[in-house]
Amino acid sequence: MEKIPMTSAGHAALESELKTLKSVERPAVIQAIAEARELGDLKENAEYHSAREKQGFIEGRIKELEGVLSLADVINPTALSGTIKFGATVTLVDEDTDEEKTWQIVGEHEANVEKGLLNVKSPIARALIGKEEGDSVEVRTPGGEKSYEVLKIEYI
Questions:
Q1: pLDDT digits (tens, 9 = 90+) for 89-130
Q2: CA dihedral 118, 145, 102, 107 (to 10 degrees)
């Protein structure tokens, strides 16, 4: 199995979600199933079927998180420097619109574009890897070709 790169913050968030699922969500859904069973006929019991469906989702997510965490390769970005690599926080300027954007390159399980966390496997991140400050980067996105200039690279 291939290791899954992630930052320590991403690893902590996944561990927190796993702990919540096991200690809060799982017992709550077991209680809901028990209460729904007491209502009688299970064939026409919507509460029972809903709780069982939720239980299936929770158990699936627990297994997924345990698998991801067992393969996690936690990388500390503060120990890195130089060209853009995993964990870098990169400030770019769109060469067409002069709009500045700042992204941190993270693992796929912690990526969230709205929060500025860019999946290492995304087209933009793959184009940025290995670049230095001042480099121009051409990226083919679903919206067409984009040109960016690397303004700043930080390892926070």
A1: 999 998 888 899 999 999 999 999 899 999 999 999 999 999
A2: 10
